[in-house]
User: Fold this.
Amino acid sequence: MKVTLLGCGGSGGVPLLGGEDGRGAWGACDPREARNRRTRSSIVVQGPDDQTILVDAGPDLRAQLLDHGIGRVDAVLLTHAHADHVMGLDELRIMNRIMGKALPVFGTARTLADVTGRFEYAFRPPTPGFFRPALEPVTVEAGQVVRLAGLDVRLFSQDHKVMETLGLRIGGFGYSTDVVEMPEPAFEALAGVRDWVVGCFQRAPHPVHAHVEKAVDWARRLRPARTVLTHMGPDLDWSWMRESLPPGIEPGHDGMVLESPLGDA
Assistant:
């Protein structure tokens, strides 16, 4: 199973808009380090039959798919409905043309109610030519194991303070973005995970996102072989993280590829 991090930035990306010259505010991140340039957080998961699950569809989606050579999407899973995770849904109209059919979009009832309100036109019955997206909502909930694009995906609930987000487990791989507290069932779902991608926004505590110390504590409890940080803000310089994080924990970067086993679920 192949997992590609399309983006690993927070809601504003890195750099943020602005800066003294208008070319971006980098915070603590060194602009000379290419891995500090981060688009909004999203991944694709590809199984042995090359079917592809897109997890979240943020505003950078078109460029992400082109940059990382993803020419097909078979299913979409939305972790939650914040703008940096859903505002690229309109870009999927081209995937409709490629596939020749509507795309299933999986999410909780709350998430789907939100996106069908924002993108009402995309959830109507398909029309010839797919001049607008054709998306089919499929309601799921934490605790389920659902079949997406040929893969069994275990879903679990995470606390983002302002709402529930979905985490996922596929074989030896786990993904937990936009989380500030991990409920006990989430740890149970991730038990024995080999590769874990987890959101970590900054060094100091944050009201709705995990910070470095908390993400490290979670990783020490779960003990995956590899923990990769994502959803990182401009406070987290790539070189600083490489030098400061404990062994087995590393910063992600846009375009990072992980190969993870389908067993060990």
About this structure: The mean pLDDT is 96. The radius of gyration is 18 Å. The domain at 2-257 is CATH 3.60.15.10 (Metallo-beta-lactamase; Chain A). The helical segments are 61-67, 83-86, 93-99, 109-118, 184-190, 212-222, 238-244.
